[in-house]
Amino acid sequence: MLMLLMKNKKKGMTLLEVIISIAILGIIIVPMSNMILTSVKTNKRGEDKQQAVYLAQQVLEAFKNVSTFEDNNGFTAQSFSLNGNAYSLSVGSTINTDPLTVRFSDLTIGDYTLRVTLGRMQNANIYNNSATNNITADYKIIVSGHNDTRTIKLNNSTQSSISGTPNGIFMYLKGTKSDDSPGHNLLIKKNDSDSNVLFNLDSDTFNNNISLSFDDSYEDTNQFFINVYNNTTDNINIYVNTPNGKNINYVVNNESGTISTYNVVTGDSAVFSKNYNARVEVIKDSATIYTVNSNISK
Predict the structure, then answer these.
(1) Segment 25-40, tens digit of pLDDT
(2) 114, 130 Cβ separation under 8 angstroms
(3) What is the DSSP-derived secondary structure letter of residue 244?
(4) Opening angle at CA 182, ends 181 and 184, nearest 5
């Protein structure tokens, strides 16, 4: 009888054994649960990243297919199609004026927010066919010759000599005519002295474009300085035309106001193009999960 009781006692588990078993099971389950949760989160982040990449690429592809980013008033709203749905990016704010850079209003697609920034590239190359110059400028400047015979011409005026002076010019732009009446004024000097005025030209209209060309006779081993004082409230585009195959050393100094500088080189393209920096950020749950930058020409 005693032996039977002892055998039955051995078949059961004591409270201590149960507690130890539960503890061991807990030690095993907690790391496994963490591993499972981590794996799920990792997979979810991967899916989010994949979707973010897809959305950003769709915006950039749409940007590459539009005809232009700007009109006479600056950057314009941009539209694109995604999975059969039409979306529009409206210009939200200007985040830089030199070079001009804008941020479009945030666009929400599902759980994702797209934040798109677009800006002009400074000192960008613009290619145009010699027979088709699409750059329209109210003020056109031509620089010729070498140090001993350096001349400059503005629009249809006669040439003025700038020989023997520092290798460069000073340009002053006003939002009124020289007598302060409505219009615009361009003043060009040999240097910053008032006694060295080369041209003083008023204009009723101004499209904010200035073309400065070095012709085929231009020769110099020194750097040519173009010092620009923009005293208007607008951004001014300076298009510097250099002859094909000739390396001309020049620099555009922005002394005041805002300007964008473009180097125009004769090439094979039928029209000139502006170069832009596009940036797309994809945000989810207030965190940026993907960012891409791209250079686009128009």
Answers:
(1) 767 776 666 666 666 5
(2) no
(3) T
(4) 100
How far is 226 from 253, CA to CA, in rounded Å? 6
d(CA 104, CA 48): 22
Q: What is the pLDDT of residue 293?
A: 85
For the beta carbon of residue 28, count every other beta carbon within 10 angstroms: 10
Instruction: Indicate the length of the chain as a whole number.
Output: 298
Taking the C-alpha atoms of residue 212 and residue 221, their distance in angstroms, rounded to an integer, is: 19
Task: Among 43-47, 66-70, 183-187, 267-271, name the one with the lowest average pLDDT.
Answer: 267-271
**Residue type at 17?**
E
State whether residue 51 is helix, strand or coil. Answer: helix
Residue type, 29: I
Name the residue type at position 46: G
**Identity of the amino acid at 288:** T
Tell me the H-state helices in the chain.
2-11, 15-65
- Return d(Cα 98, Cα 257) in angstroms, integer: 9
Nearest to 198 by CA among 228, 171, 235, 227: 171
With CA atoms as reference, report the closest residue to 69 among 120, 129, 121: 120
Distance CA 116, CA 295 (A): 13
**Whose CA is closest to 173, among 148, 203, 198?**
203
Say if residue 163's pLDDT is above 70.
Answer: yes
Of the pLDDT bands very low, low, confident and very high (cuts 50, 70, 90), residue 53 is confident
| C-alpha closest to that of 267 among 131, 127, 134 | 127
**Beta-bridge partner residues of 5:** none
